[in-house]
Predict the structure.
Amino acid sequence: MNTEQIKLRMRGGFKPFALHLSDGREFKIAHPEFILVGKGVVAVLREDDLVETLDPLHIVSVEDLKAEAA
């Protein structure tokens, strides 16, 4: 996935979303502070407070979440 597409989600009013990876993992992004997006890397703060570094090529989809589900 193009990192610019993820950056666009961060602008103009944040809405919770989930990143789906090619290996089946899912990362819920409840707040914009939980994700950093660079040119060729995405860093996500996991629920266990560890940082997961993702290759954008393995992000296969982005799903909107309801605020209470995040």
In short: The chain has one domain: 3-64. The longest strand covers residues 59-64. The first helix runs from residue 3 to 10. The radius of gyration is 11 Å.
